[in-house]
Specification:
Blueprint lengths: L2 E6 L2 E6 L10 H14 L6 E6 L20 H12 L5 E5 L2 E3 L1 H8 L2 E4 L4 E3 L13 H9 L1 H10 L3 E2 H7 L4 E2 L4 H10 L15 H12 L5 H16 L2 H16 L2 H15 L16 E5 L3 H12 L3 E5 L3 H20 L5 H9 L1 E4 L10 E4 L5 H14 L5 E4 L6 H6 L7 E6 L8 E6 L5 H13 L3 E6 L6 H18 L3 H11 L5 H8 L1 H14 L8 H7 L12 E2 L7 E2 L1 H13 L9 H22 L5 H11 L9 H8 L1 H11 L12 H8 L10
Parallel strand pairs: 2-3, 3-4, 4-6, 5-7, 6-9, 10-11, 10-13, 11-12, 13-14, 14-15, 16-17
Antiparallel strand pairs: 1-2, 7-8, 15-16, 18-19
Helix pairs in contact: 1-2, 2-3, 4-5, 4-9, 5-9, 8-9, 9-10, 11-25, 12-13, 13-14, 18-24, 19-24, 24-26, 27-28
The structure holds 3-hydroxybutanoyl-coenzyme A and 1,4-dihydronicotinamide adenine dinucleotide (NAI).
């Protein structure tokens, strides 16, 4: 508990300190109210400044406290009332960031002075919430309805300069923040934001409502924000605050907010791998990427963006030129779109070297291999890499299906071999499965996780198996999609149902986007290596027609304009013929059956991965699916979703489905049976 008071030139400075981000812990509002009252009663004090210690003003309400009986925002609201009753000027001095309830405290102060570069935002929507401490009522009064809607529905922060232009802060400090805030406070008068009026803006409200209607599971929170902003223009302030509180409470209790809060904490917890030594990756200065194909060029961009110099090595000169060209074009286009400055783009391009010889790995700190998905080719590459790279260099493979241990076997020093399974496009997708081989050393694994963080990825540790965490589950999910087609559904019905459920893209559309040929070549290899492994031949028939998805203009769908899928009657006919070939009488399939079977397939395979030790914690699986596969964040991830359904119910449905066609696929994972018998859930395995 730390609120300290100091005085400068008759101005009291109240400072709170709650590291690391000054979240508004339960003690903070009460402490601040006491300190405020003392200064109000002190005749030697002319004005008050509120500010935070350390790196920021405040990141907002304590999100961890939302699950306790005292969710904390009542205390924040009492503080707001105390600020509204202040009889002396109160100035918030902002630095670092002022987010959520933190910004709402600043809005309840009368004036705001910000250090240059401060970021101000109301990101509650990212947690399925609305700003619940007066933000929906005060922000429109300061910046107008359109800007307030934009900030609250996007959740995106703005910087101090933009905040000044918008009227959100009254001054950007030119010198020392507190000196400037004191000078500002000494000449300020008492002015309450609640006494300002927000002009109605029906067009902005309508535009926001239209945009919200497309946002699936996020729509209820967005609509609640929009309703509150409308109230700010039409109701007395206190009535607006009352309605905001009611809507906040409803959202706080919603499944969507629970899912998003789980996702927030899991994204941070996933990096803390039990048993690993502390490590960082700041000393990784040079990398080599082997193979300048789709993945090699994407990985190269991701490394260059983090300030790591890369030598791109490829055996075919024409492929090298094409891959390096893709890297340079992507970086240049970011500069053209003003996402980065031209000097930054120039520096990144200058940090790219190209080569056709593996000799050029000699000086690098890490090698990432992205050559053809062929075990013998990869083993040959690793044998050579191990001989040519520094003994302390990390050797990583981007394989998506091969056995990392067999790749490591080929290298002298297998303890430095690790899998780094990027997702396509590798410079965009946030997921990075960090594959721990049987002999990968804990330090190499820890450094690989630190590298993931450094290049802005969510690193998730996975054990060695075919498909690791994500693709092993995806296979079961896809299996259900194909079985549903065989039994009576059509592609668009399956995809539309999964998208309405919240997925960014349905499973068949994902395959069309990724390239049907990739799955086809994996299936062909497995048909030789694992002939007993059952799978639907339907996608093979589509590939046999040369329909590989978006890149060939046709897959499960047609792509007349390149990207937008159009249902194809020929594929519908093929699906129906295929059912007939199997001797199946097609039946009507409901959307509920589609979503239930696809979701249960994910949950059951996820439980098997936990049982096999491939995934260490349910939250690791959840992060894989949120960041690699477009799983709806509002559902928290497949394992969190299972807990929300309730594991006894999950088990009962798996048992029921395991009696149906191809029911073996739903044979319950032993872990689910154990957890149900012990009255536990997946969440109990997260700590
Ligand atoms: N409450 C509780 N803990 C928080 C927190 C918050 N609001 N914000 C961050 N933390 C914790 C993180 O969980 C993490 O804990 P850990 O070290 O134990 O894992 C630690 O603070 C540091 O956070 P990050 O690792 O995320 O640090 P970064 O420097 O990368 O990012 C940040 C800092 C930009 C503030 C980022 O944490 C963030 O965006 N936080 C959430 C901000 C937010 O959503 N605020 C609104 C809260 S809801 C609200 O205010 C309701 C109100 O309207 C009533
Ligand atoms: P690609 O076919 O586009 O590129 C592979 C490149 O490696 C080719 O340019 C080839 O000439 C080059 N190459 C082959 N042998 C080489 C050698 N000995 N030395 C140097 N270069 C060599 O393949 P893609 O799609 O980039 O895949 C690469 C790896 O990434 C594979 O292991 C694949 O399984 C994996 N992967 C692919 C994903 C995808 O969506 N394409 C996703 C995740 C992983």
């Amino acid at each position: 508990m730390a609120i300290t008071t100091s005085v400068r030139d008759g101005v009291a400075l109240l400072k709170w300190d709650n590291p690391p981000v000054n979240a508004i812990a339960s003690w903070l509002p009460g402490g601040l109210m006491q300190a405020l009252a003392a200064q109000m009663n002190d005749p030697t004090i002319s004005a008050i400044i509120l500010h935070g210690a350390g790196r920021c003003f405040s990141a907002g309400a304590d999100i961890a406290g939302f699950d306790s009986p005292d969710t904390g925002e009542a205390g924040i609201r009492a503080l707001m009332q105390a600020l509204d009753s202040a009889t002396k000027p109160v100035v918030a001095a902002l630095h670092g960031y002022a987010f959520g309830g933190g910004l709402e405290i600043a809005l309840a102060a009368q004036w705001r002075v910000a250090a240059p570069g401060t970021r101000l935002g109301l990101p509650e929507i990212n947690l399925g919430l609305l700003p619940g401490a007066g933000g929906t009522q005060r922000l429109p009064r300061l910046v107008g309805v359109a800007k307030a809607l934009d900030m609250m529905t996007s959740g995106k922060p703005i910087d101090a300069a933009a905040a000044l232009a918008a009227g959100l802060v009254e001054c950007v400090a030119a010198g020392d923040l507190l000196d400037d805030a004191v000078a500002f406070a000494r000449s300020a008068h008492v002015r309450r934001v609640r006494d300002l009026t927000a002009a109605p803006d029906p067009a902005a409200l309508q535009q926001a409502r239209t945009a919200a209607s497309d946002r699936k599971l996020r729509a209820p929170a967005l609509n609640a924000i929009i309703d509150c902003v409308e109230d700010a223009t039409s109701l007395p302030f206190d009535e607006g605050i009352g309605r905001e509180a009611t809507r906040f409470a409803a959202l706080l209790a919603s499944d969507a907010s629970h899912g998003l809060r789980h996702a927030f904490f899991a994204e941070r917890a996933v990096a803390r791998v039990p048993g690993l030594p502390a490590a960082d990756a700041t000393d990784i200065a040079r990398a080599a990427v082997i193979g300048a194909g789709t993945m090699g060029s994407g990985i190269t961009i991701a490394l260059l963006e983090a300030g790591i110099a890369v030598t791109l090595i490829e055996q075919r000169p024409e492929a090298l030129a094409a891959g390096a060209g893709r890297v340079r074009d992507t970086i240049q286009s970011l500069a053209k779109r003003r996402r980065i400055s031209q000097p930054v783009a120039d520096a990144r391009i200058a940090a790219l070297g190209v080569s056709t010889s593996l000799d050029d790995v000699a000086t690098v700190d890490i090698v990432i291999e992205a050559v053809f998905e062929d075990l013998e080719i990869k083993r040959a590459v690793f044998a050579e890499l191990a001989a040519k790279a520094r003994p302390d260099a990390i050797l990583a493979s981007n394989t998506s299906t091969l056995d990392v241990d067999r790749i490591a076997d080929a290298a002298a020093g297998p303890e430095r071999v690790v899998g780094l399974h990027f997702f396509s496009p590798a410079n965009i997708m946030r997921l990075l499965e960090v594959v721990r081989g049987a002999r990968t050393s804990p330090l190499v694994l820890a450094r690989a996780m630190a590298l993931a963080r450094r290049i802005g990825k969510v690193g998730v540790v996975a054990g060695v198996c075919d498909g690791f965490i994500g693709n092993r589950m995806f296979e079961e999910y896809l299996r259900q999609a194909y079985l549903l087609l065989e039994e009576g559904a059509l592609p668009a019905q399956v995809d539309d149902a999964m998208q309405a459920w919240g997925f960014a893209l349905g499973p068949l559309r994902v395959m069309d986007l990724a390239g049907q040929d990739i799955g086809w070549s994996i299936r062909k290899r497995r048909a030789i290596e694992q002939p007993e492994r059952p799978y639907s031949r339907l996608p093979d028939q589509i590939c046999e027609q040369g329909r590989f998805g978006q890149k060939t203009g046709a897959g499960f769908y047609l792509y007349p304009d390149g990207r937008k899928p159009l249902a194809d009657p020929e594929i519908d006919a093929l699906v129906m013929e295929y059912s007939a070939t199997l001797g199946l009488v097609r039946r009507a399939i409901s959307d509920d059956e589609i979503t239930e079977r696809c979701a249960l397939a994910l949950i059951n395979e996820g439980a098997k991965l936990l049982g096999d030790g491939i995934a260490a914690r349910p939250l690791d699986i959840d992060q894989v699916w949120l960041h690699g596969y477009g799983f709806p964040a509002e559902r928290g991830g497949p394992m969190f979703y299972a807990d929300q359904i309730g594991l006894p119910q999950v088990l009962a449905r798996l048992q029921a489905l395991s009696g149906g066609r191809e029911g073996w696929a739903f044979q319950p994972a032993p872990l689910i049976e154990t957890l149900v018998a012990e009255g536990r859930n997946f969440g109990s395995l997260n700590s």
